[in-house]
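Let's practice the habit of predicting before peeking. Look at the sequence and jot down your guess about where helices and strands might fall. Then scroll down.
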Amino acid sequence: MGETRNLPSELGTIRIADEVVSIISGLAATEIDGVASMSGGIAGGIAEALGRKNLSKGVKVEVGEEEAAVDLFMIVRYGSRIPDVAWQVQENVKKAVENMTGLKVVKVNVHVQGVNFPQQQAEENEKK
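Done guessing? Here is the structure:
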């Protein structure tokens, strides 16, 4: 399941997989109003939108012994103020990862890959 990190404990070691940090980050990002979805990357010039089914997609983490850096690739809703959404995502991800894992988050880089327009959202909801 990927890399794991050992955290010191009086009773033994605590192992946290990188995938866990990715999932926590993805969940924290999608909690913010204005985030339409995480993005799995650019395929043929079009951002591949991902729903909540695979929350580690669109998230890249680098985890050290005590610190973590997170890169998030996302699609925002049309009409949202992108700098505000990005700042809220950074704050929420940092808080969630630090509270749940005990790791210090040194960076949360937000990569806006696209904009979701209202008609796209309606079409996606019809497909579900």
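How did you do? The chain has one domain: 4-127.
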